[in-house]
Amino acid sequence: MPKFLIQARYTPEGAKGVIEEGASGRRAAVEHVVAGLGGTVEAMYFSFGEDDFVCILDFPDAVSMAAVSLRVKASGALHTRATPLLTLDETDEAARREVAFRPPGA
Fold first, then answer.
1. Is the separation of the CB atoms in 57 and 39 below 8 Å?
2. For the chain, which terminus, N or C, has the lower number of CB atoms within 10 Å?
3. What is the mean pLDDT of the chain?
4. Which Pfam families match (predicted)?
5. 31 within 8 A of 23, measured Cβ to Cβ
């Protein structure tokens, strides 16, 4: 199942929501959304600095991740970045594939 790293930061309104319902309330909300599309939450951590939380999500496909991303961004409560994660085996397979690429000027 494809994995995605999510990095997010709350808007002021989103942060107020976290204060009101707590981190465990947000974790439950994330799990509900992800499970609704056949996925799971592998890990979720709140942080401080540039991002307010990070999580690793498993989804059946990239379209499911895109659907969640669109809805979350449309809410205006937070800004997110989703990064597909590859296993070591997937990276090894990618390294073995022939790619017909010519760098500029070559």
1. yes
2. C
3. 94
4. GYD
5. no
